[in-house]
Amino acid sequence: MSRIRRLAVAGLVLVGTACTAGDDADDAAVLTDTLATTTPPVATAPPADTGMGGMQGAIALMAVNNSNHTGEATITASGNQTQVMVQLNGPEDRTHPGHIHSGTCDSPGGVVAPLESITTTGGTGTATSTANVPMATVMNGQHIVQYHTPDGTRVVCGNIPGHTM
Ligand SMILES: [Cu+2]
After folding, report:
1. b/e map of 95-105 (b: 16 or more CB within 10 Å)?
2. N or C: which end of the chain has fewer CB within 10 A?
3. Does the pLDDT value for residue 63 go beyond 80?
């Protein structure tokens, strides 16, 4: 009796939004309202009666610091939580910690929710996480998906597009 309705919402895929190189400290940046000056594309409005329940969106994860890593995250509402499916592509066989952070790829804030680590083997790896944060929160235009090297350096980042309720 699943009531999950997956609406693949066109317009949620961000392409070509390069993350500029910068400092990698997860706690370096501070979330400020002034960061929201570049508004991501607004998705097609969901059915009004279900709120975010039927929303799903794919987000391109772009290399940071010339990491030669890429990826894609697909986020889906799951009650008051958010399911995050990630494929990470990278040349080294190793484990990558991941998080939802506040902020933007240009100016990341602190960790909002941990994601399952991804071990890349033969160039790729996947993980599905349940983040204990509502979809409506992660889609407020001030959240990002990031994966890191084992020592914390960012390898990929994707801005989660904002959604107008
Ligand atoms: Cu992180």
Report:
1. ebbbbbbbbbb
2. N
3. yes
Contact 100, 84 (CB under 8 A): yes
Map residue 6 onto helix, strand or coil: coil
> With bands split at pLDDT 50, 70 and 90, how would you rate the model's confidence at 163?
confident
Question: Length of the chain, please?
Answer: 165
Whole-structure pTM over 0.70, yes or no? no
Interval between CA 67 and ligand 1 midpoint (Å): 15
The CA 26 to ligand 1 mean position distance, Å, reads: 6
Ligand 1 centre to CA of 2 (Å) is: 32
Ligand 1 centroid–CA 46 distance in Å is: 29
Please give the distance, rounded to the nearest whole angstrom, from the Cα atom of residue 148 to the centre of ligand 1: 6
